[in-house]
Amino acid sequence: MDPINEEIIEWFHSVLRNKLSTKEFEQWLYDKKEILEESIGKDVYFRLINLNYNSKYVMDELEGQLTKILNYRSVEGLRSEIY
């Protein structure tokens, strides 16, 4: 696995800050499949694309996944860092 580059981190932060929609984020995931698989691993990538982006609870699930990917100890730690 390659280190996560700044562009990927920025996209993760943008969706968490609601600067882009979950639908835009989902499309970006599909568009950047190869880069993401190399950076975060195929299993993690699969977990992200396997989320139900039509669910009203997708942000809760996405926060949990991105907290793990970005190596924050908790969702609260993630929130305090990006907001």
Cα(first) to Cα(last) distance is 28 Å
Number of strands: 0
Number of domains: 1
How does the major sheet shape up?
Answer: none
Structural category is mainly alpha
Overall geometry comes to globular
Mean pLDDT: 87
Continuous helix count: 6
| Overall helicity | 55-70%
Order of helices and strands: HHHHHH
Whole-angstrom Rg? 12 Å
Low-pLDDT ranges:
none
Strand-residue proportion: under 5%
Organism: Paenibacillus odorifer
Protein name: DnaA N-terminal domain-containing protein
What does this structure look like?
The chain has 6 helices and no strands. The termini are far apart. It is mainly α. Helix 3 (33-40) crosses helix 4 (42-49). It has helices at 6-16, 22-31, 33-40, 42-49, 58-69, 75-82. It has one domain. The mean pLDDT is 87.
Write a concise synopsis of the structure shown.
The chain has 83 residues and is mainly α. It has helices at 6-16, 22-31, 33-40, 42-49, 58-69, 75-82.
